[in-house]
Amino acid sequence: MKQVKKIAIIGGTHGNELTGVHLIQKFKMAPHLVKRESFETLVMHSNEKAIQACRRYIEKDLNRCFSIKGLADLSQNSYEDLLAKALNQKLGPKGSSTPNMDFIVDLHSTTSNMGLSVIIDNENELTWQVVAYLQQKMPQVKIFKWHGDTEETSFLHTVAPNGFAIEVGAVPQGVLRADLFFETEKLLSHLLDFFELLNCGKLKKFTETVEVYSNKCLVDFPRDKEGNITAMVHPDLQDTHYQMVQKGDPLFLSFEGEPIVYEQEETVYAVFVNEAAYYEKGFAMCLSRKERVALPS
Question: Are 287 and 180 found together in one domain?
């Protein structure tokens, strides 16, 4: 693996996810916390207006604005579309052989009980090696492989050739939790140490496989003909943490108190259960497969 010269740690892509917002503020006030000798670390807020308003976004979800097609389309000119184009030039540009950043970490929080999770959406060797190292250092870290709610991956971190998002939860929107704040900071410290070891030729081979939850499908709430929700996430699934779901297990509970069960044969694991921000996107949870992935050699 080649050396990494520039990485970016970003918070506030969603303005009401305060863990990342305040970690970036802390790092700006104490830059020695993210300084390493062999590479440069940029820390920044991505959506200042949304942060000031303590809203997820102003006009459009910024973390869905980074597709190559969307970045090139000048007719897409909402506040977040224009911001995405500017961020792409600052951090990328996406698909460039000489990007401004080698690696991007985008900090998020979720209202679902995800603990400390790394969300990946690429097969790059460096990204896989980083997540394996992080899971070794902090075994409670879960790795979730996203297969998206858009045709092309359009997350902010994809403007660099390598990177991922960190999700921590459960955290209500517009709220800080001290435990997850410090857990996220600890994870970032390990991440920076990884790059320092890599650049200095001191990184040792530590594992050959890594446990990953790979997204199988997005599941919407039951709805009536007018699109109104007719059932809630079942109490047995609410607040669970990568819960195993087997045929016959309840997913939802109707307003009349009737359970709605999982009917497929394949055992899956529920992720992003009842995430508040996903109501507008039309899904109640992700169902995933647990796999062991061989690291690129």
Answer: no
pTM (two decimals): 0.96
The answer to whether residues 112 and 257 belong to one domain is no
Residue with tokens 């970036």: 24
Q: Are 181 and 251 contained in the same domain?
A: no
What pLDDT band is residue 123 in, cutting at 50, 70 and 90?
confident
**52-64: per-residue pLDDT in tens?**
999 999 999 999 9
Residues 6+ apart with CB under 8 A from 221: 229, 230, 231, 232, 252, 283, 284
pLDDT tens digits, 187-242: 999 999 999 999 999 998 778 899 999 999 999 999 999 999 999 999 999 999 99
Instruction: Please state the domain count of the chain.
Output: 2
For residue 274, the domain's CATH number is: 2.20.25.160
Determine, yes or no, domain membership for 170: yes
CATH of residue 47? 3.40.630.10
C-alpha to C-alpha distance for 152 and 92, rounded to whole angstroms: 17
